[in-house]
Specification:
Ribosomal Protein S4 Delta 41, Chain A, domain 1; about 210 residues; alpha+beta; about 10% strand; single chain; Structural Genomics Hypothetical 15.5 Kd Protein In mrcA-pckA Intergenic Region, Chain A; five-stranded antiparallel β-sheet
Length: about 210
């Protein structure tokens, strides 16, 4: 399976914004974008041309892909599904990305980043409605309960993540019971409830050309 293996901090620097790909490090003074707030590469500090309309749209699409850790082909599939649904396409797209199991694990506080959540899901640490699911892209539906397996409840990495999850912030459409090591997807969020800082309309314009 294809995946990004280079330094994740380079992605934040390329997009010129924090994508919160490294968990607690992104909240500390060790964050790379704080030390080097310019694109990576030997020409990163040089004078850059004014971005075209296409360039601005492309950067916004890349930012959204990288925040959720989705490759280009599945991302296009998400957009196609969002366009088929009724309502605002950009909002539909964000709702689909938010419904991914790895994102739910991250939102519930079981992992400090989506990348860490993806790894935990692949290693079969979680149950959805009592059934083991090891597919990070699995679509969690409103009312579904995501629970940590009994054998994984002493995992230090997960326990520490739960302790610091409140400081990272939680969302209103996901509830977590730390004592029971489970969480629930309450409802499909409205756009204003999704804390992802991105201009999704630019992504819609890019794919609508």
């Amino acid at each position: 399976m294809a995946r990004y293996t280079d330094a994740k901090c380079k992605l934040c620097r390329r997009e010129g914004d924090k994508l919160f790909l490294k968990g607690e490090r992104c909240f500390s003074d060790r964050c790379a974008i704080e030390k080097r707030p310019y694109p990576p590469g030997q020409h990163g500090r040089g004078r850059r041309r004014k971005a075209s309309e296409f360039g601005i749209q492309l950067r916004e699409k890349q930012k959204l892909r990288r925040i959720y850790g989705v490759l280009e082909k599945p991302f296009r599939n998400y957009f196609a599904e969002a366009a088929r649904r009724t309502g605002v396409t950009g909002t539909n797209l964000l709702q689909l990305l938010e419904g991914r199991l790895d994102n739910m694990v991250f939102r519930m506080g079981f992992a400090p980043s989506r990348n860490a959540a993806r790894q935990l899901v692949c290693h079969r640490h979680f149950l959805v409605n009592g059934r083991t699911v090891n597919v990070p892209s699995y679509q969690v539906k409103p009312g579904d309960v995501v629970m940590l397996r009994d054998k994984s409840r002493k995992n230090v990495f997960i326990v520490d993540s739960l302790k610091t999850s409140t400081a990272r912030g939680r969302v209103s459409y996901v509830t977590t019971d730390d004592g029971k090591f489970e969480g629930s997807y309450v409802t499909v969020p409205e756009r204003a409830e999704i804390p992802t800082i991105v201009q999704e309309q630019l992504v819609v314009e890019l794919y609508s050309k």
